[in-house]
Amino acid sequence: MTDLSQIAECEWNEAYRRAVVLRPLFEIQYCSREKAHEAAVELGLSERQVYRLIQRLRESGGELTALLPGGSNGGRGKQRLAAPRENLLRGLIAEIFLTRQKRSAAELVFAIRNQCLKAGLAPPSESTIRRRLKTLSPAEHCQRGEPHPEIKPIYGITPTSDIPLDWLQIDHTPVDLIIVDPVDRSPIGRPWLTVAIDVFSRCIAGFHLSLEAPSATSVGLCLALVASDKAPWLQQRDIEASWPVNGKPRRIGVDNASEFHSLAFERGCAQHGIAIEWRPPGLPHYGGVVERVIGTLMQLVHALPGTTFSNPTQRGGYDSDKTACLTLEELERWFAVAITKYYHLRPHEGMDDDIPLHRYQQGLQSLIAANKTIPIPRDPRTFLIDFLPVVRRSLQRDGITIDHITYYSNALRPWIQLRNQPTPLLIRRDPRDLSRIFVLDEEHNVYLEVPYRMLSRPAISLWEHKLARKRLREQRRTAVDEASLFAAIDEMREIERKAETLTRTARRNRTRRQLGSKLERESSQIENTTSTVDIGPVRPFDDIEAW
């Protein structure tokens, strides 16, 4: 349970060397004897060791630390427990000992012995458990709220950087707002916001809004927006603004949430030369920049109808569900306007009242003067794919079926004709657009873009897909197929279009009624007077967006 920063460089390099050879074998379902032998020769290991390392990779979810060198016979200071007991020991240390409750080592010993006996395992001795606790890293000690003696307190220090996109901080938060279903406008809950901020300029480099809980996918989609040219993205949303922040960051600072330790995230970053810096537990100043930005954005959200505010005390008797009116798509557009037309143009106290966008542009000029540039992904499509979630499916005669949707391309024909593929295909899917999937061609090391088999189907998001399946279940459909799924989506979109039309008509009629009654009053008592109207101070966003 050693923290990554405590691993010796020579051991880390050896683990990376092993990963280059063994990760391709870990990703396939069956590793043949021939491939295991080739890997063993290249790494200077036995075939048995290769299979053991592949198993460790699978058990850890592909983490690089699973390949750290270490003899199986243990030794002083080494781990000698069998896998079941080792897994149980690690889990209980994390669950019982490494918490803010500061439970004692004696309680941990009792719990481990008890769980081992229940599982039919011989419990480790008390001395073994206590020796293991002495090997905990400084970062792990911080999880108990007891800073390790090696860690010195740091007061009032804010992370800094010298050039644009040298360091990003990424974090998630539930948005303090209830959003509504685009079909019937009923409240559906709070979405999640993932934000990436450039520490140098305090510019927001990218964000992702989703109804799904934070995951490697939401982080990957946020990073994809960070790296891409945002002009087309803004144009698609009918936003006239400048957002010149784009490129690959050199490093990113994140907390220790599971999505930041996923194989997809770690490998995607390694593939594109992005270093990951995990925030040490108990050291909140490492993530202070992005957390302050999130706080600023939530303060702006509190002015929107349907806000939940920061806590029940602030909310009082305000009915968030009843006043909610924004859909996920509308809220995404609102955030884009808030970022590009307000936050980026607002003086920042932490930068001597400099403006984030101005500071970013100054940083770009400094890079140009030094004959340097911010690296841009050579292929934005590949960059996105490397961060998308992975699924595995077998290839059938009619193509590939995922969640009741069938995909097909002529590029799959050679594989279909072979009909002897024992391993499922590795597939990546963009949850924002299910009209295509990316299938890995392992022989040529490229991804094939495979569309719907029925090209007439509309592009849909994973959220729409889940909503359609939910509605079909509510209608007590015993079987869900592709036709019924897209029929439900078409019906939902038609309801949405009619609802929008009716809403616009109702608003126009209400305005006409108000205008008519006003003119009627004015005609009954005409006064030749001129008056001024005090509209009060202009609040932010009054001239930017309104619903």
TrEMBL record:
It holds the Pfam family Mu-transpos_C. One of its GO terms (biological process) is DNA integration. This is Transposase. GO terms for molecular function: nucleic acid binding. Residues 160-364 form the Integrase catalytic domain. Residues 505-515 have a biased composition (Basic residues). Residues 502-547 are annotated as: Disordered.
